[in-house]
Amino acid sequence: MPLALLACLLPLSLAAPAPILTPSAYRRDNSAQTAAVSDATIETDFVRPAQFSRIAYCSSQAVTSWQCGAPCAAVGPNVKVLQAGGDDGLIPMYFIAHDQDTDSILLAHQGTDAQNILSISNDVQFLQVGLNTTLFPQAGDGIKVHDGFQKTFERTADGVLAGVQSALNSTGVKKVAITGHSLGAAIATMDAVMLKMNLDPSISLSTVVFGLPRGGNQEWANLVDKTLGTDFTHITNQNDPVPTVPPQFLGYVHPQGEVHIAKANATGATETVACPGTENEVSSLYSMLLYSVSLPGDCQNCSEGNSLFHVSVANHIGMHELTT
Questions:
Q1: What does the alpha-carbon distance between residue 163 and residue 180 come to, in Å, rounded to a whole number?
Q2: Comparing C-alpha atoms, which of 38, 70, 41 is closest to residue 57?
Q3: Under 8 Å CB-to-CB from 167, ≥6 apart: which residues?
Q4: Residue 322 falls within a domain, yes or no?
Q5: What region holds the Fungal lipase-type domain (predicted)?
Q6: Residue 18 class from Cβ within 10 Å (0-12 exposed, 13-18 middle, 19+ buried)?
Q7: Whether the bond into 246 is cis, omega within 30 of 0
Q8: What does the alpha-carbon distance between residue 217 and residue 214 come to, in Å, rounded to a whole number?
Q9: For the whole model, what pTM was predicted?
Q10: Helix (H/G/I), strand (E/B), else coil: 20
């Protein structure tokens, strides 16, 4: 099973030390300047979720036996897998575990398997549909989400909710950490909102996802911001095209919380910034169609400033080719 090598999985360091940002520092209005993210913050907040998002690409057998190579070794042995599922197709692989090193329940989702047509079909159903109000009982009116993402989420939602609740009860821990890459990031975001609405308010929940595509309209982005607040971060890597789709002219908008790897080399990120607001000031369509070079000002520092002429699929799957 191929594993996604994400840029932030490598030893990440910045060109120069920067003040450590607290999660609240990621919340900015759309006109604010970006701010450097320190290597300490990357190591503390992002590297472990990134390793778990890699592990989600392994088979259920490899996950439950904790024999999935480098990412399992990097996380360490103190992880007890409580539930694993998926079929690597219409139902992406996922697992729920007790991460004993952080004393939290971990939920991770696989992204699209590019070699499986059923997996790809989850992405291409991009029309917007109404949000499932049974699974999101506190959602307001007018919320529209990506049809394929919601259908994929619905296939595991009940099992995920029951599994996380069971894990919390059996372990007694009070923290849930959620992650995923690509399609898995979209599912993880929906899971996070669902869990926040349904779990006991005393349970703390943090979500760090990678290569997140846009998942719904402005009302959906508002719901994510309102429900998850500063405990939601989505990492984007250089010229990765996935965070720029579906495009804004189809009514899609990102939630807040972007942290962007602006520059990297063979050893990892050399410039990482916390980005302002839900989207940059220059619209996605405008930037994709008119700019083949860097955008002016602050917009060039975040995924919204990516150009259609300079996309990199390698930036989506990671710094290097896929490995086994």
A1: 17
A2: 70
A3: 82, 83, 96, 98, 105, 173
A4: no
A5: 108-248
A6: middle
A7: yes
A8: 8
A9: 0.82
A10: coil
Q: Please give the residue range of the domain that contains residue 21.
A: 7-317
Per-residue pLDDT in tens (0 to 9) along the chain, 324 residues: 333 333 434 332 222 222 233 333 334 355 567 888 888 898 999 999 999 999 999 999 999 999 999 999 999 999 999 999 998 878 999 999 999 999 999 999 998 655 544 444 445 667 899 999 999 988 888 999 999 999 999 999 999 999 999 999 999 999 999 999 999 999 999 999 999 999 999 999 999 999 999 999 999 999 999 999 999 999 988 878 888 888 888 899 999 999 988 877 766 667 888 887 777 543 333 344 443 344 444 445 677 655 555 666 667 666 332 233
- Which domain CATH number covers 181? 3.40.50.1820
Q: Answer yes or no: are the C-beta atoms of 168 and 204 closer than 8 Å.
A: no
Q: Domain for residue 187, yes or no?
A: yes
Q: Are 55 and 86 in contact (CB under 8 A)?
A: no
